[in-house]
Write a structure and sequence with these properties.
six-stranded antiparallel sheet; mainly beta; SMAD_FHA_dom_sf; 215 residues; Cell_Proc_Reg/RNA_Proc; FHA domain-containing protein; 46% strand; FHA_dom; single chain; elongated
Length: 215
């Protein structure tokens, strides 16, 4: 049976079998009561989806992190560890299919000409300030609903050899920049070879995957 193994400040807190759904948070009505000031009242949900499980952050104040990256919703793989406040939680159970982050989030410097493409299109300085809740949401396919928070100045998305684009955070907003393999679509239209400023709710298509920009 799938389960969660919970540690608090490196001490074993408990092991919890998973059913169809299980909530975690500071309020006592959660299935797993995490009594810590860094945890929101109803912080996260682990839910079965077909033959695997997903974790979803329920709009918590301090976020939920998987492999160091803040997540909104993502499929879990056997051995995954996620953090909620000072709690470290390991999932043991059937693995979800490879996630959007596994298959389509790239390192810019691994893409030939990637850094040059960003610099050529950069019309204002990159923004080192907080990105708040800016994020990309997957709209279709087996990873539909998965969300990637845009915590870096440049987030590179795509499939090498097919199509690659980058979301660049500048002082005046977020921009979609073509990097390789043609122009990604914005709201169903090719935007040409130049960068395009993104607005809340814009729908993107990169390497055949439909995405939405949320802010």
């Amino acid at each position: 049976m799938a389960k969660l193994v919970v540690h608090y400040r490196d001490q074993l807190f408990g092991e919890f079998d998973l059913g169809q759904r299980l909530t975690l948070g500071r309020q006592e009505d959660n299935d797993i009561h995490l009594d810590d000031g860094a945890v929101s009242g109803h912080h996260a949900l682990v839910e079965q989806r077909g033959d695997h499980f997903c974790i979803e952050d329920l709009g918590s104040t301090n976020g939920t992190r998987l492999d160091g990256r803040r997540i909104r919703r993502v499929g879990l793989r056997d051995g995954d560890e996620f953090g909620i406040g000072h709690f470290r939680i390991r999932f043991e159970g059937p693995s979800a299919p490879p996630s959007f982050q596994d298959t389509m989030i790239l390192k810019l410097d691994d893409i030939a000409g990637g850094r040059e493409a960003i610099q050529k299109e950069q019309t204002s300085e990159l923004n080192g300030k907080s990105k708040a809740n800016a994020r990309i949401e997957v709209l279709d396919g087996e990873n539909a609903g998965e969300t990637l928070f845009l915590e870096e100045d440049v987030t590179t998305i795509g499939v090498p050899g097919r199509q690659v684009a980058a979301v660049s955070h500048r002082r005046d907003g977020f921009y979609l920049v073509p990097v390789d393999g043609g122009t990604p679509k914005v709201n169903g239209r090719d935007n040409g070879p130049r960068s395009c400023r993104l607005n809340n709710g814009d729908e993107l298509e990169v390497a055949g995957v439909r995405l939405a920009f949320r802010q």
